[in-house]
Every structure is written in structure tokens, then in C-alpha cells.
Amino acid sequence: MTRYLRAALAAALALAVVAALSACGGSSGNSSDSDVGKLDTSASAGKCGMGNGKPATGKAIKIRALTTASGGIDFSSAPRSAAAFFKCVNANGGINGRRIDYAYGDDALNQQKAAQIAAKYAGDKSVVALAGDATFIGCGAANPIYKKADLYSITGTGVPESCFESSNIAPVNAGPRMSAVATVQYLNDQGKASAVAQVSNKVPGVGDWLQAGVSQYAKDHDVKVVKSILHDPASIDANSIVLDIKNAKPSAVILQDPGPLSAAVLKAGATQGLQKKFAWSCLTSCYDASFPGQIGPQWEGFIANAELQLVDAKTPDNLLWRTVLQKYGSSKDPRDTFGQSGFLAAKILTDTLLKLDSDNITRETVSKAIVGIKDYKSDILCAPWYYGTADQHNANHTTRMAVVKSGKYTLLEGCKPVQDPALAPILAREKSEGLAG
Q1: Is the separation of the CB atoms in 197 and 230 below 8 Å?
Q2: pLDDT value at position 73?
Q3: CA 423, 426, 431, 432 torsion: positive or negative?
Q4: What is the mean pLDDT of residues 188-197?
């Protein structure tokens, strides 16, 4: 049992987790293309899967996902994008004529329910794989069940440490620790990290884990962390946090909370006129097309990490994601980084299934194919993605940086590998096994 799972099982933290994660990692409010521009999809819905425009009518291939969609948090951005993509695949020939039967289960932010759903999927041998998962509390509980059943997940969004320390779960996104280290790395490269303050919450396996990453990077690069704040996630006191930051006299601040909590800190900082006093930054949790409008024009120059492609990028896969949501999703499906990750998880699995004999698609053949995924390229990713056999998965560890300019996020720095010392065994395995090109 992982450290995160042991801690998460403590009933005393349940309400705190709910409050802290009210929008963790996902959209901070955007629910349509209003912030990124609407696409003309009248001519085509894009080429999903076979791309032949013929509805699939063959025997269903059952794919499932585990997500947190209630219990005080809706974290379902990833499976919603995955669902839209699979609808597009079914409208374009399916998997060599076979349609995809996709659905996701809601763990309601409850460990026991997450385990029950995972057991249900594992026990149903017709479920050949999982894709687009986005559960905040389910990874630690589900992985042992999946491992025993030889069932694998191409997870859309992973946040807690346990999602990246699992044998049968591999997230498409980079995760908050990579995002945090990438941010301090950028600040250091720009000469703005002589004194860093970082703010996160006390949710086990999240705040402590990613702040440890920043602290280790700082130690290795002569960066001084002057303040590390872990606040009560159930009751954030933004004014006190800003006062603590101000008294620490940092050169830069890294906000590591969900977008709404970070926005509250920024509001308190603006009230005290600290916008230009320090270099203010945030993780991918703040990289949402609507976030600049929420924090206001006084935050021009605010920096955020982007674990995937910028959401308004006009690159092939990114445009396909947005087109698919317009044609097969709804205006309520967030256009955010984790919608991208769910779409990409579904696309990776679809491309993998299309290589198999459609008459022999079973859990056994699909699991073997998933583990064998390597050097998968997409313009949504900075570097090739892979699966492989290991007890630790973090294939995405190259990210971008964005900055608020004229009221919207624009690219600040292109793809750059994250220098987290914890990646050493992963990088060694990538090289020895030729997993990423």
C-alpha cells in the first residue's frame, strides 16, 4: 500500500480533500470554445480512427474508465473528451468495422467505491482495456485489482503520486510534480529563482509530493526556497498566505493549487499591490483559457506551466480534439489540458487497436499491445509517449510554459525536458528499452 493510499484512507481528511479538489487540475470555469475560438466543422468531423465516414455496426469492443465526477468534485474532463472521440471513431468505421462501447464509472471521491468499480471492470472479461480515466482517489485502490486481472489503463489525467507509481496505470499528462519542477526550472533559467516561495495544500500525495520535487531541484541548482506553505485545503486563508509570502521576501512565487484557490491568492496579492513585486507563476491547474479573464488585466505577465499543447493551438491533433468536442461532445465539456489528455488517451488506444486482428481483440491481446506501446507521437505531446512494463509510469516529462499577454495565454517557452531527479530510473529505462525514440 502506497504512502498516499494509507493517508487518503484517513476519514479525517475526507472533507478537506473534497474542498481542495473542487476543480483540481481541470477547468477553472471554461465550458465551451468561447475562449479559444469556434471552429467550422460543417464540412467534416475530422478523421477519427479509420476515417471512412461509415458507421461501425460490428460486435462491440468494451472499454471503460474510472473517474471522479461527484462527491464535491467533477474531475471528468478527460473521460468526456474520450467519450466524444470514441463516438467519432464509431462514426468512421470503428475498429475495422467493430464499434467501441465506452462508459465511465464515478467513484464519487470514495475509495471504497473506486475499488468496487475497479473490481467490476476487472471481473468483466469483456472489458479489454481502460482509457481516459481521471480519478483523484482511485489509482492506489485500483492498481492492485487491475494487476491481478491483467487489465491496463491508458489514463487521461493523473494527479496524486499513486497514479504515477502504478504498474497498470499510465497517465498521458505529466502530473503536478513535473509541472511544479518545470516551473521552478523556468524561473531559475530566467534568473528569477534566487528566493522561491511555494504554496500548496495538505492533501497527502499531492502538496507534499510536488513541493518535495521543487525543494530537491532547488538543492541541486543553488536555488533557495524561502517559504513552503501547505495550507488547510478545506479553509484557505488567502490573505494570510499572501502575508506569509510577502514576509518571506521571495523573488518568485509558485502557486500549486487548483485554479480557483490560486485565483483567490492572486486576488489577495493584487489587493496588496504585489503583482509586480515578485514573479508569480502556477502549475497546469491554472492553464485554462478562461483563467486570464478571471484574474483580471492586473495580472498581465502571469506565468503557468502547460503539460500538453496550448489549447488554442492550430496543430492537427489539437484541432481534431476541438472538432470532435464540437461535433460529438457538448458545450459543457471543458476545453482544457485534461480534456486534451482524455482525447489523446482514447486516440492512443484506438490507434493501437487498429493494428490488431479485429477477430481476436481480447483482454489478453489488448493488454499485450498496450504494454508494447512505444514512441507514440502527437502534436499535443512534447515528446513521444510509451507504456512499457514497470511499477512506475511518467512518460510525459517534457512541458511548455505559457504567459498571460493581452488577456490570454500565449506561448512563453516551447517544449523543455523537466529536470526532476526522481526521473532518473524512468529516463534510464527509456534509453535501455528504446521506449521514446
Answers
A1: no
A2: 81
A3: positive
A4: 98
